[in-house]
Amino acid sequence: xxxxxxxxxxxxxxxxxxxxxxxxxxxxxxxxxxxxxxxxxxxxxxxxxxxxxxxxxxxxxxxxxxxxxxxxxxxxxxxxxxxxxxxxxxxxxxxxxxxxxxxxxxxxxxxxxxxxxxxxxxxxxxxxxxxxxxxxxxxxxxxxxxxxxxxxxxxxxxxxxxxxxxxxxxxxxxxxxxxxxxxxxxxxxxxxxxxxxxxxxxxxxxxxxxxxxxxxxxxxxxxxxxxxxxxxxxxxxxxxxxxxxxxxxxxxxxxxxxxxxxxxxxxxxxxxxxxxxxxxxxxxxxxxxxxxxxxxxxxxxxxxxxxxxxxxxxxxxxxxxxxxxxxxxxxxxxxxxxxxxxxxxxxxxxxxxxxxxxxxxxxxxxxxxxxxxxxxxxxxxxxxxxxxxxxxx
Amino acid sequence: xxxxxxxxxxxxxxxxxxxxxxxxxxxxxxxxxxxxxxxxxxxxxxxxxxxxxxxxxxxxxxxxxxxxxxxxxxxxxxxxxxxxxxxxxxxxxxxxxxxxxxxxxxxxxxxxxxxxxxxxxxxxxxxxxxxxxxxxxxxxxxxxxxxxxxxxxxxxxxxxxxxxxxxxxxxxxxxxxxxxxxxxxxxxxxxxxxxxxxxxxxxxxxxxxxxxxxxxxxxxxxxxxxxxxxxxxxxxxxxxxxxxxxxxxxxxxxxxxxxxxxxxxxxxxxxxxxxxxxxxxxxxxxxxxxxxxxxxxxxxxxxxxxxxxxxxxxxxxxxxxxxxxxxxxxxxxxxxxxxxxxxxxxxxxxxxxxxxxxxxxxxxxxxxxxxxxxxxxxxxxxxxxxxxxxxxx
Lengths: 393, 393
Prior knowledge:
Two copies of one chain form a homodimer. Chain A is α+β, with helices and mostly antiparallel strands. Chain A has helices at 4-14, 149-157, 196-206, 221-234, 252-258, 293-311; strands at 21-25, 38-39, 49-50, 54-57, 64-71, 85-89, 101-104, 108-111, 114-117, 127-128, 139-141, 162-166, 171-176, 180-181, 192-193, 212-217, 237-241, 262-266, 270-271, 277-281, 284-289, 321-325, 330-331, 337-345, 348-351, 368-372, 378-379, 384-389. Chain A contains six helices and 28 strands.
């Protein structure tokens, strides 16, 4: 059985990357990964810009300047100031070529057509140099960046209207289990409601992946094989839940083998999610996730998330990890590495109650997964642990 | 001038909460805030459930059991086991009422119609009690919870198909400045591209707020008044960028006063975003944000985010804050409290370069804002600082 680091490495090595790019209006490109560097066509700021409401000065040795002009934001004037002359200027307005400082309005006394400095002004003060933020021809955002709202804002400020992005994967979610019934129906003895399909669809949607479909199948070998074959043929990523253990009615692994899926790994020394399966057929990646919702979700954030990002060509594929002190003692049962639902807030991280693989409730309160390596045994309050940050709004 | 804590408190006190609820299909309710507690109509699990592939036992004093039944997940059988009898059972299957333990298949030896235990089995082992996760009639998720994908999964497992949620606010973004031109046009001297509208629309969309519109206005008092009046009349929240300083061509503050907006505060002892304005007219909240994009965005995450959450009736309105060691020395200029773009990763937090109010680029690399209180002066590597986590995917 492999360890968690090896499993993660295998996913990031074997996961395919989309070969299709598309050009997109900037405002629709949120959550997409850049397929090409974006180069700025302008200097930003495009001109020497006043950072303050005040006075642009052509510095002389004295403290008195004669006021000869007014320049508002948006004005296209570039008056020539002689030494000792000043122009009233406002934030964002272009500083005349002949001015070499801007003094804040609070730091002068105005006397008719003259202003008198209350204190010395440094050369270059309160002027944003042309191209301070970026120069024309320089790379604004590199290929492989997942576009956030802040990136959209930055690119808009450079006048960018279109970007090249990678397509997102089409994802098939296959939920297995004779015991599952659809919501809205009445439960008979022995049945539970199907929830993995709803859950995975929703967490994928949260991350910006809307191209998903769900199919539910019974524990029947022939049916499993047929459905998986068709899912594999028409999707970039297939996520199967359940049916991957060694029980007599677990048909997923056998079906993978028969339809020619190449196993990359099966079983990881971890809790939850020991019987995790990862395989490939052509460019399609296949995960066999646990049937228990909480276990499926832990595996999703640790292993499927990087696969999705890799598919999109993202530079950064895994969720950020950070060291934090544990806020209460925690005793690990067993020797496997653990991914534990946790809440980081204030002075550190708290491992939540309800860690059972079947219980997804604790995930609602979690904003992190605490990773404890193999043989962690007893962890004391104050000890540093590794927390994987979970996406949130 | 008030401090940052007072400003945040005033926003959360004065922000209105939506009075309109709507019933929604569970699968469409992602990112909405629950308007009512959701109560479970079932026990979960609904029956005593096997947590393992193995054998359900009616325990006796010996190690040998006779195998009399087989129960798969989804079966509705509930056979009577006598003391010393066992049933083959699979993960998720109902454990017979007469069984009092499940033994893992790895821990028995099978001998024809008999199984022999390799080690003692505890009473209740590997049985998930009925209602272990939640009891019928108990609250599954409380009013005020923002529904994440994990919540959708949990509610689906309880058979919930519809939920009552609060409506989301309609948001008007008003961008001011004579210097702004639309992307696609050519910049004249003194002009820059309008980016705040694109940026705020995108960060709102990232957070699940799609009901937004942008209007751009020139620095003209009459026009400013007319547009703000109409924005206020038809939206729940109005975000204005720029025009709020005391420059001769800053008309936003004067317009607010003339159209009857009640000022809650103006100016906060902080950097960036000193001239931040917050006011109310009826139930509509109005923010006067800085014109500089990075300053506007800092104020957005610190003050507007809680306002949006309050409007939706969310229990938790502010972004999570956490104490972390600084990974490099940092010197603060000036005495105001600071919100600094930062990246948390590994052993702590790094304050990024490019903190200028005009530069939004650093926000692309940031996953947190470091908050430094007034008069922080010099912060040394290793010193604990407060980091506000930014939403991410």
